[in-house]
Protein backbone atom coordinates (compact mmCIF):
# COMPACT_ATOMS: atom_id res chain seq x y z
CA UNK A 1 0.00 0.00 0.00
CA UNK A 2 1.50 3.39 -0.90
CA UNK A 3 2.49 5.86 1.77
CA UNK A 4 0.11 8.63 2.72
CA UNK A 5 2.13 11.17 0.75
CA UNK A 6 4.74 9.62 -1.43
CA UNK A 7 8.28 10.92 -1.53
CA UNK A 8 7.85 11.61 -5.22
CA UNK A 9 5.22 14.25 -4.42
CA UNK A 10 7.44 15.85 -1.80
CA UNK A 11 10.38 15.88 -4.18
CA UNK A 12 8.20 17.44 -6.87
CA UNK A 13 7.12 20.19 -4.49
CA UNK A 14 10.72 20.68 -3.35
CA UNK A 15 12.01 20.74 -6.92
CA UNK A 16 9.41 23.29 -8.00
CA UNK A 17 10.26 25.57 -5.09
CA UNK A 18 14.00 25.18 -5.65
CA UNK A 19 13.70 25.94 -9.34
CA UNK A 20 11.71 29.07 -8.61
CA UNK A 21 14.07 30.27 -5.86
CA UNK A 22 17.21 29.33 -7.81
CA UNK A 23 15.93 31.13 -10.91
CA UNK A 24 15.18 34.20 -8.79
CA UNK A 25 18.64 34.11 -7.20
CA UNK A 26 20.40 33.63 -10.53
CA UNK A 27 18.43 36.45 -12.14
CA UNK A 28 19.14 38.72 -9.19
CA UNK A 29 22.81 37.74 -9.27
CA UNK A 30 23.03 38.45 -12.99
CA UNK A 31 21.33 41.84 -12.65
CA UNK A 32 23.38 42.76 -9.60
CA UNK A 33 26.59 41.64 -11.35
CA UNK A 34 25.82 43.73 -14.39
CA UNK A 35 25.07 46.77 -12.25
CA UNK A 36 28.29 46.31 -10.28
CA UNK A 37 30.32 45.85 -13.46
CA UNK A 38 28.81 49.01 -14.91
CA UNK A 39 29.67 50.87 -11.72
CA UNK A 40 33.23 49.49 -11.72
CA UNK A 41 33.56 50.34 -15.39
CA UNK A 42 32.74 53.97 -14.64
CA UNK A 43 35.11 54.04 -11.66
CA UNK A 44 37.97 52.56 -13.70
CA UNK A 45 37.29 55.05 -16.49
CA UNK A 46 37.52 57.91 -14.01
CA UNK A 47 40.78 56.56 -12.56
CA UNK A 48 42.31 56.11 -16.02
CA UNK A 49 41.22 59.62 -16.96
CA UNK A 50 42.99 60.93 -13.86
CA UNK A 51 46.16 58.96 -14.61
CA UNK A 52 46.08 60.18 -18.22
CA UNK A 53 45.92 63.78 -17.02
CA UNK A 54 48.93 63.12 -14.75
CA UNK A 55 50.78 61.51 -17.65
CA UNK A 56 50.27 64.62 -19.78
CA UNK A 57 51.78 66.74 -17.00
CA UNK A 58 54.59 64.50 -15.75
CA UNK A 59 55.84 62.76 -18.90
CA UNK A 60 57.68 64.47 -21.82
CA UNK A 61 55.33 63.00 -24.36
CA UNK A 62 56.46 65.35 -27.14
CA UNK A 63 60.02 64.00 -26.96
CA UNK A 64 58.93 60.42 -26.35
CA UNK A 65 56.75 60.23 -29.44
CA UNK A 66 59.76 61.02 -31.58
CA UNK A 67 61.71 57.89 -30.70
CA UNK A 68 62.41 55.62 -33.66
CA UNK A 69 64.16 52.29 -34.25
CA UNK A 70 67.78 52.48 -33.13
CA UNK A 71 67.17 55.04 -30.38
CA UNK A 72 67.11 52.31 -27.73
CA UNK A 73 70.89 52.72 -27.39
CA UNK A 74 70.61 56.36 -26.36
CA UNK A 75 70.97 57.26 -22.70
CA UNK A 76 68.02 59.62 -22.88
CA UNK A 77 65.84 56.82 -24.25
CA UNK A 78 66.87 54.52 -21.45
CA UNK A 79 66.12 57.22 -18.93
CA UNK A 80 62.71 57.93 -20.49
CA UNK A 81 61.93 54.18 -20.69
CA UNK A 82 62.71 53.74 -16.99
CA UNK A 83 60.68 56.81 -16.12
CA UNK A 84 57.87 55.48 -18.34
CA UNK A 85 57.85 52.09 -16.59
CA UNK A 86 58.05 53.68 -13.13
CA UNK A 87 55.08 55.90 -13.90
CA UNK A 88 53.05 52.85 -14.99
CA UNK A 89 53.92 50.90 -11.86
CA UNK A 90 53.43 53.86 -9.57
CA UNK A 91 49.93 54.56 -10.86
CA UNK A 92 48.69 50.98 -10.90
CA UNK A 93 48.79 50.45 -14.67
CA UNK A 94 49.34 47.06 -16.22
CA UNK A 95 50.95 48.60 -19.29
CA UNK A 96 51.72 52.04 -20.63
CA UNK A 97 52.51 52.36 -24.32
CA UNK A 98 53.12 55.21 -26.70
CA UNK A 99 52.11 53.90 -30.11
CA UNK A 100 51.38 55.14 -33.62
CA UNK A 101 48.07 54.73 -35.37
CA UNK A 102 49.59 51.79 -37.29
CA UNK A 103 50.54 50.03 -34.05
CA UNK A 104 54.27 50.85 -34.07
CA UNK A 105 55.69 51.30 -30.58
CA UNK A 106 57.68 54.45 -29.63
CA UNK A 107 57.96 53.74 -25.93
CA UNK A 108 56.58 50.89 -23.78
CA UNK A 109 56.60 50.14 -20.05
CA UNK A 110 57.42 46.52 -20.92
CA UNK A 111 60.49 47.75 -22.78
CA UNK A 112 59.41 46.88 -26.31
CA UNK A 113 62.02 48.47 -28.65
CA UNK A 114 61.04 51.45 -30.80
CA UNK A 115 59.49 50.29 -34.05
CA UNK A 116 58.18 47.09 -32.49
CA UNK A 117 54.61 46.04 -32.91
CA UNK A 118 52.23 46.21 -29.99
CA UNK A 119 50.51 42.85 -29.34
CA UNK A 120 47.13 42.55 -30.99
CA UNK A 121 44.93 45.20 -29.42
CA UNK A 122 42.18 47.42 -30.63
CA UNK A 123 43.53 50.60 -32.26
CA UNK A 124 41.54 53.80 -32.03
CA UNK A 125 41.80 54.72 -35.73
CA UNK A 126 41.02 58.25 -36.81
CA UNK A 127 38.44 59.01 -34.12
CA UNK A 128 39.31 62.23 -32.27
CA UNK A 129 39.54 62.64 -28.52
CA UNK A 130 40.15 60.23 -25.72
CA UNK A 131 38.66 56.79 -26.17
CA UNK A 132 37.89 54.14 -23.55
CA UNK A 133 37.38 50.43 -24.09
CA UNK A 134 34.63 48.69 -22.21
CA UNK A 135 35.49 46.49 -19.28
CA UNK A 136 35.88 43.04 -20.84
CA UNK A 137 37.75 39.77 -20.68
CA UNK A 138 40.53 38.90 -23.07
CA UNK A 139 41.14 35.53 -24.66
CA UNK A 140 42.90 34.30 -21.52
CA UNK A 141 39.92 35.26 -19.39
CA UNK A 142 41.61 38.23 -17.70
CA UNK A 143 39.75 41.51 -17.23
CA UNK A 144 40.87 44.42 -19.44
CA UNK A 145 40.18 48.17 -19.42
CA UNK A 146 42.17 50.67 -21.53
CA UNK A 147 42.26 54.41 -22.23
CA UNK A 148 43.65 55.79 -25.49
CA UNK A 149 44.99 59.33 -25.12
CA UNK A 150 45.82 61.22 -28.37
CA UNK A 151 49.19 63.03 -28.12
CA UNK A 152 49.30 64.58 -31.61
CA UNK A 153 50.96 63.53 -34.88
CA UNK A 154 48.83 60.32 -34.91
CA UNK A 155 50.47 59.15 -31.72
CA UNK A 156 48.44 57.61 -28.92
CA UNK A 157 49.24 56.87 -25.32
CA UNK A 158 47.61 53.62 -24.24
CA UNK A 159 46.94 53.20 -20.52
CA UNK A 160 45.87 49.66 -19.51
CA UNK A 161 44.35 49.20 -16.04
CA UNK A 162 46.55 47.13 -13.75
CA UNK A 163 45.80 44.11 -11.61
CA UNK A 164 45.41 46.31 -8.54
CA UNK A 165 42.62 48.21 -10.22
CA UNK A 166 40.97 45.03 -11.51
CA UNK A 167 41.40 42.94 -8.35
CA UNK A 168 38.16 44.30 -6.98
CA UNK A 169 36.31 42.59 -9.84
CA UNK A 170 37.69 39.16 -8.91
CA UNK A 171 36.90 39.78 -5.24
CA UNK A 172 33.42 40.84 -6.22
CA UNK A 173 32.98 37.68 -8.34
CA UNK A 174 34.14 35.48 -5.47
CA UNK A 175 31.83 37.19 -3.03
CA UNK A 176 28.98 36.94 -5.48
CA UNK A 177 29.68 33.21 -5.84
CA UNK A 178 29.71 32.78 -2.07
CA UNK A 179 26.53 34.80 -1.71
CA UNK A 180 24.89 32.78 -4.47
CA UNK A 181 25.94 29.52 -2.78
CA UNK A 182 24.66 30.78 0.56
CA UNK A 183 21.42 31.88 -1.08
CA UNK A 184 20.97 28.47 -2.70
CA UNK A 185 21.65 26.77 0.64
CA UNK A 186 19.10 28.97 2.38
CA UNK A 187 16.66 28.36 -0.47
CA UNK A 188 17.18 24.61 -0.07
CA UNK A 189 16.60 24.80 3.69
CA UNK A 190 13.53 26.98 3.28
CA UNK A 191 12.14 24.80 0.51
CA UNK A 192 12.74 21.64 2.52
CA UNK A 193 11.05 23.12 5.57
CA UNK A 194 8.03 24.26 3.59
CA UNK A 195 7.89 20.88 1.83
CA UNK A 196 7.93 19.00 5.13
CA UNK A 197 5.26 21.29 6.56
CA UNK A 198 3.06 20.95 3.49
CA UNK A 199 3.77 17.21 3.31
CA UNK A 200 2.64 16.70 6.92
CA UNK A 201 -0.60 18.54 6.28
CA UNK A 202 -1.22 16.56 3.09
CA UNK A 203 -0.37 13.35 4.96
CA UNK A 204 -3.02 14.09 7.60
CA UNK A 205 -5.56 14.82 4.89
CA UNK A 206 -4.68 11.65 2.95
CA UNK A 207 -4.90 9.48 6.07
CA UNK A 208 -8.31 10.94 6.80
CA UNK A 209 -9.46 10.10 3.26
CA UNK A 210 -8.13 6.55 3.62
CA UNK A 211 -9.85 6.06 6.99
CA UNK A 212 -13.13 7.32 5.50
CA UNK A 213 -12.68 5.01 2.52
CA UNK A 214 -12.20 2.03 4.85
CA UNK A 215 -15.48 2.81 6.60
CA UNK A 216 -14.20 4.34 9.82
CA UNK A 217 -16.83 6.50 11.51
CA UNK A 218 -16.37 10.01 12.85
CA UNK A 219 -13.31 10.79 10.73
CA UNK A 220 -12.36 14.46 10.87
CA UNK A 221 -9.18 16.39 10.10
CA UNK A 222 -7.95 19.65 11.63
CA UNK A 223 -5.89 21.84 9.30
CA UNK A 224 -5.63 25.39 10.67
CA UNK A 225 -5.08 28.31 8.33
CA UNK A 226 -6.79 30.02 5.43
CA UNK A 227 -4.85 28.51 2.52
CA UNK A 228 -5.96 25.94 -0.05
CA UNK A 229 -4.94 22.94 2.09
CA UNK A 230 -7.00 24.24 5.01
CA UNK A 231 -9.91 24.73 2.62
CA UNK A 232 -9.55 21.10 1.51
CA UNK A 233 -9.62 20.04 5.17
CA UNK A 234 -12.85 21.93 5.83
CA UNK A 235 -14.37 20.57 2.62
CA UNK A 236 -13.38 17.04 3.69
CA UNK A 237 -15.07 17.47 7.07
CA UNK A 238 -18.26 18.71 5.41
CA UNK A 239 -18.17 15.80 2.95
CA UNK A 240 -17.54 13.25 5.74
CA UNK A 241 -20.44 14.60 7.81
CA UNK A 242 -22.77 14.54 4.81
CA UNK A 243 -21.63 11.04 3.90
CA UNK A 244 -22.20 9.78 7.44
CA UNK A 245 -25.68 11.27 7.45
CA UNK A 246 -26.47 9.69 4.10
CA UNK A 247 -25.02 6.33 5.18
CA UNK A 248 -26.99 6.41 8.43
CA UNK A 249 -30.18 7.19 6.53
CA UNK A 250 -29.56 4.42 4.01
CA UNK A 251 -28.73 2.00 6.83
CA UNK A 252 -31.98 2.79 8.59
CA UNK A 253 -33.92 2.36 5.35
CA UNK A 254 -32.15 -0.94 4.70
CA UNK A 255 -32.85 -2.22 8.20
CA UNK A 256 -36.50 -1.22 7.87
CA UNK A 257 -36.83 -3.07 4.56
CA UNK A 258 -35.06 -6.11 6.01
CA UNK A 259 -37.36 -6.14 9.03
CA UNK A 260 -40.40 -5.82 6.79
CA UNK A 261 -39.06 -8.66 4.65
CA UNK A 262 -38.52 -10.82 7.72
CA UNK A 263 -42.06 -10.19 8.98
CA UNK A 264 -43.48 -10.95 5.54
CA UNK A 265 -41.31 -14.06 5.20
CA UNK A 266 -42.36 -15.37 8.61
CA UNK A 267 -46.06 -14.82 7.82
CA UNK A 268 -45.79 -16.54 4.45
CA UNK A 269 -43.80 -19.41 5.96
CA UNK A 270 -46.45 -20.00 8.63
CA UNK A 271 -49.21 -19.88 6.04
CA UNK A 272 -47.34 -22.41 3.89
CA UNK A 273 -46.39 -24.71 6.76
CA UNK A 274 -49.98 -25.48 7.80
CA UNK A 275 -51.24 -26.72 4.40
CA UNK A 276 -47.87 -28.38 3.85
CA UNK A 277 -48.38 -30.45 7.01
CA UNK A 278 -51.83 -31.48 5.75
CA UNK A 279 -50.41 -32.42 2.34
CA UNK A 280 -47.69 -34.45 4.04
CA UNK A 281 -50.31 -36.37 6.05
CA UNK A 282 -52.38 -37.04 2.95
CA UNK A 283 -49.29 -38.28 1.09
CA UNK A 284 -48.50 -40.66 3.98
CA UNK A 285 -52.05 -42.00 3.82
CA UNK A 286 -51.76 -42.33 0.03
CA UNK A 287 -48.43 -44.10 0.40
CA UNK A 288 -49.96 -46.76 2.65
CA UNK A 289 -52.66 -47.40 0.09
CA UNK A 290 -50.19 -47.57 -2.79
CA UNK A 291 -47.82 -49.91 -1.01
CA UNK A 292 -50.57 -52.50 -0.73
CA UNK A 293 -50.18 -53.55 -4.36
CA UNK A 294 -49.55 -50.76 -6.80
CA UNK A 295 -47.17 -50.51 -9.72
CA UNK A 296 -43.54 -49.34 -9.36
CA UNK A 297 -44.45 -46.14 -11.24
CA UNK A 298 -46.98 -45.24 -8.54
CA UNK A 299 -44.43 -45.88 -5.79
CA UNK A 300 -41.87 -43.70 -7.58
CA UNK A 301 -44.40 -40.91 -7.92
CA UNK A 302 -45.17 -41.04 -4.20
CA UNK A 303 -41.44 -40.84 -3.40
CA UNK A 304 -41.05 -37.79 -5.64
CA UNK A 305 -43.97 -36.09 -3.91
CA UNK A 306 -42.39 -36.81 -0.54
CA UNK A 307 -39.05 -35.35 -1.78
CA UNK A 308 -40.68 -32.14 -2.93
CA UNK A 309 -42.58 -31.84 0.35
CA UNK A 310 -39.31 -32.25 2.28
CA UNK A 311 -37.65 -29.61 0.11
CA UNK A 312 -40.52 -27.20 0.72
CA UNK A 313 -40.31 -27.91 4.44
CA UNK A 314 -36.56 -27.16 4.39
CA UNK A 315 -37.19 -23.88 2.56
CA UNK A 316 -39.85 -22.89 5.06
CA UNK A 317 -37.49 -23.73 7.94
CA UNK A 318 -34.73 -21.58 6.43
CA UNK A 319 -37.16 -18.70 5.93
CA UNK A 320 -38.23 -18.90 9.56
CA UNK A 321 -34.60 -19.15 10.68
CA UNK A 322 -33.78 -16.02 8.70
CA UNK A 323 -36.84 -14.14 9.97
CA UNK A 324 -36.14 -14.90 13.63
CA UNK A 325 -33.46 -13.01 15.56
CA UNK A 326 -30.81 -15.59 16.52
CA UNK A 327 -30.99 -16.53 20.19
CA UNK A 328 -27.50 -17.22 21.42
CA UNK A 329 -26.56 -19.64 24.16
CA UNK A 330 -23.03 -18.44 24.79
CA UNK A 331 -20.39 -20.78 26.12
CA UNK A 332 -16.58 -20.93 25.94
CA UNK A 333 -15.45 -21.62 22.39
CA UNK A 334 -14.64 -25.32 21.91
CA UNK A 335 -12.33 -25.42 18.89
CA UNK A 336 -11.79 -29.16 19.17
CA UNK A 337 -15.54 -29.89 19.00
CA UNK A 338 -15.94 -27.63 15.96
CA UNK A 339 -13.00 -29.31 14.30
CA UNK A 340 -14.46 -32.78 14.90
CA UNK A 341 -17.91 -31.86 13.55
CA UNK A 342 -16.50 -30.17 10.44
CA UNK A 343 -14.32 -33.22 9.78
CA UNK A 344 -17.38 -35.43 10.09
CA UNK A 345 -19.22 -33.17 7.65
CA UNK A 346 -16.38 -33.18 5.10
CA UNK A 347 -13.60 -35.71 5.79
CA UNK A 348 -11.51 -34.29 2.93
CA UNK A 349 -11.50 -30.78 4.41
CA UNK A 350 -8.00 -29.68 5.46
CA UNK A 351 -8.23 -28.17 8.96
CA UNK A 352 -5.58 -26.12 10.74
CA UNK A 353 -5.95 -24.65 14.23
CA UNK A 354 -3.54 -22.25 15.94
CA UNK A 355 -1.66 -23.69 18.90
CA UNK A 356 -3.13 -21.18 21.33
CA UNK A 357 -6.40 -19.35 20.84
CA UNK A 358 -7.39 -16.49 23.15
CA UNK A 359 -10.51 -17.23 25.19
CA UNK A 360 -13.78 -16.35 23.50
CA UNK A 361 -17.42 -17.29 23.88
CA UNK A 362 -19.88 -18.32 21.20
CA UNK A 363 -23.14 -20.14 20.55
CA UNK A 364 -21.87 -23.56 19.53
CA UNK A 365 -24.91 -24.51 17.42
CA UNK A 366 -24.97 -21.17 15.65
CA UNK A 367 -21.23 -21.16 14.92
CA UNK A 368 -21.47 -24.76 13.69
CA UNK A 369 -24.33 -23.74 11.38
CA UNK A 370 -22.13 -21.00 9.93
CA UNK A 371 -19.22 -23.38 9.33
CA UNK A 372 -21.54 -26.05 7.94
CA UNK A 373 -22.89 -23.59 5.38
CA UNK A 374 -19.44 -22.31 4.39
CA UNK A 375 -17.81 -25.76 4.16
CA UNK A 376 -20.75 -27.20 2.21
CA UNK A 377 -20.68 -24.31 -0.27
CA UNK A 378 -16.90 -24.66 -0.62
CA UNK A 379 -17.15 -28.40 -1.32
CA UNK A 380 -19.85 -27.85 -3.93
CA UNK A 381 -17.69 -25.19 -5.61
CA UNK A 382 -14.45 -27.20 -5.47
CA UNK A 383 -15.99 -30.55 -6.48
CA UNK A 384 -15.25 -34.01 -5.08
CA UNK A 385 -11.52 -33.83 -5.87
CA UNK A 386 -11.05 -30.17 -5.02
CA UNK A 387 -9.37 -28.58 -2.04
CA UNK A 388 -11.34 -27.18 0.91
CA UNK A 389 -9.54 -25.76 3.93
CA UNK A 390 -10.65 -24.44 7.31
CA UNK A 391 -8.28 -22.45 9.52
CA UNK A 392 -8.85 -21.13 13.03
CA UNK A 393 -6.53 -18.41 14.30
CA UNK A 394 -6.57 -15.02 15.98
CA UNK A 395 -5.67 -11.45 15.11
CA UNK A 396 -6.19 -8.05 16.70
CA UNK A 397 -9.96 -8.18 16.08
CA UNK A 398 -10.74 -11.61 17.49
CA UNK A 399 -10.96 -15.29 16.56
CA UNK A 400 -10.61 -15.62 12.79
CA UNK A 401 -12.24 -18.54 10.93
CA UNK A 402 -11.37 -18.84 7.24
CA UNK A 403 -12.89 -21.26 4.75
CA UNK A 404 -11.17 -21.46 1.34
CA UNK A 405 -11.53 -23.56 -1.77
CA UNK A 406 -9.89 -23.85 -5.17
CA UNK A 407 -13.12 -23.69 -7.15
CA UNK A 408 -14.05 -21.09 -9.76
CA UNK A 409 -14.63 -18.42 -7.12
CA UNK A 410 -17.44 -15.90 -6.83
CA UNK A 411 -18.07 -13.87 -10.02
CA UNK A 412 -17.29 -10.17 -9.51
CA UNK A 413 -20.84 -9.15 -10.40
CA UNK A 414 -22.19 -11.38 -7.59
CA UNK A 415 -19.69 -10.45 -4.86
CA UNK A 416 -21.92 -7.65 -3.51
CA UNK A 417 -25.11 -9.73 -3.68
CA UNK A 418 -24.26 -13.13 -2.18
CA UNK A 419 -25.25 -12.08 1.36
CA UNK A 420 -28.59 -10.68 0.25
CA UNK A 421 -31.60 -12.88 1.15
CA UNK A 422 -33.12 -14.98 -1.65
CA UNK A 423 -30.13 -14.40 -3.93
CA UNK A 424 -28.47 -17.62 -5.04
CA UNK A 425 -26.12 -18.67 -7.80
CA UNK A 426 -27.31 -22.29 -7.54
CA UNK A 427 -30.28 -23.62 -9.54
CA UNK A 428 -31.83 -25.24 -6.45
CA UNK A 429 -30.57 -22.77 -3.84
CA UNK A 430 -32.82 -20.69 -1.61
CA UNK A 431 -30.38 -17.81 -1.24
CA UNK A 432 -30.73 -17.81 2.55
CA UNK A 433 -27.72 -19.78 3.76
CA UNK A 434 -25.16 -16.96 3.71
CA UNK A 435 -27.75 -14.42 4.89
CA UNK A 436 -28.52 -16.61 7.92
CA UNK A 437 -24.80 -17.18 8.55
CA UNK A 438 -24.14 -13.42 8.50
CA UNK A 439 -27.06 -12.83 10.91
CA UNK A 440 -25.55 -15.34 13.33
CA UNK A 441 -22.08 -13.72 13.19
CA UNK A 442 -23.50 -10.22 13.60
CA UNK A 443 -25.55 -11.43 16.59
CA UNK A 444 -22.19 -12.45 18.12
CA UNK A 445 -20.87 -8.94 17.49
CA UNK A 446 -18.61 -10.21 14.72
CA UNK A 447 -18.83 -10.26 10.97
CA UNK A 448 -18.78 -12.53 7.93
CA UNK A 449 -17.32 -11.35 4.64
CA UNK A 450 -15.98 -12.49 1.30
CA UNK A 451 -12.24 -11.76 1.29
CA UNK A 452 -10.01 -11.32 -1.77
CA UNK A 453 -8.32 -14.49 -2.98
CA UNK A 454 -5.90 -15.36 -5.76
CA UNK A 455 -7.90 -18.49 -6.58
CA UNK A 456 -11.27 -19.88 -5.57
CA UNK A 457 -13.28 -18.23 -2.81
CA UNK A 458 -12.25 -17.21 0.70
CA UNK A 459 -14.84 -16.49 3.40
CA UNK A 460 -13.71 -14.96 6.70
CA UNK A 461 -15.75 -15.04 9.91
CA UNK A 462 -14.47 -12.93 12.82
CA UNK A 463 -15.62 -13.67 16.37
CA UNK A 464 -14.82 -11.00 18.99
CA UNK A 465 -12.74 -11.93 22.02
CA UNK A 466 -14.92 -10.39 24.67
CA UNK A 467 -18.25 -12.15 24.75
CA UNK A 468 -20.24 -12.26 27.94
CA UNK A 469 -21.37 -15.72 28.98
Provide a short characterization of the protein structure:
By secondary structure, the protein is α+β, with helices and mostly antiparallel strands.
Tell me the layout of helices and strands.
Layout: H1 7-58, H2 61-64, H3 75-90, E1 93-100, E2 105-108, E3 131-132, E4 136-137, E5 143-144, E6 146-152, E7 155-161, H4 163-213, H5 228-291, H6 296-323, E8 330-332, H7 335-345, E9 350-353, E10 361-363, H8 364-382, E11 388-394, E12 398-405, H9 433-443, E13 447-451, E14 458-464
Parallel strand pairs: 9-11
Antiparallel strand pairs: 1-2, 1-7, 3-6, 4-5, 6-7, 8-10, 11-12, 12-14, 13-14
3D architecture notes:
By secondary structure, the chain is of the alpha+beta class. 55% of the residues lie in helices and 15% in strands. The protein has nine helices and 14 strands. Strands 2-1-7-6-3 form a five-stranded antiparallel β-sheet. Helix 1 (7-58) runs antiparallel to helix 4, helix 7 (335-345) packs parallel to helix 8 and helix 8 runs antiparallel to helix 9 (433-443). It is rod-shaped and about 165 Å long. The two termini are 39 Å apart.
Amino acid sequence: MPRAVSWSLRWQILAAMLVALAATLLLYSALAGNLLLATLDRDLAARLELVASLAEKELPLERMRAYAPGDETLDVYRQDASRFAAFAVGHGLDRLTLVSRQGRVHLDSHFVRPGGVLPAVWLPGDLPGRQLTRLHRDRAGAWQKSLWLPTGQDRWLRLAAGSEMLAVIDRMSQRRLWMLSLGLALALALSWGLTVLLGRRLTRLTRAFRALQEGEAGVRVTLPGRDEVAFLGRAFNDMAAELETKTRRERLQYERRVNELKVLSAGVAHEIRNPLAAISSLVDFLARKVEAGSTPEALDLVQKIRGEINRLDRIVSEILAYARQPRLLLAPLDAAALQAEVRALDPACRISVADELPPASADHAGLLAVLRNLVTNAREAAGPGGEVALSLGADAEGIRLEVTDNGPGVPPDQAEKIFQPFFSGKPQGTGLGLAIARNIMEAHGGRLELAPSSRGARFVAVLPFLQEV
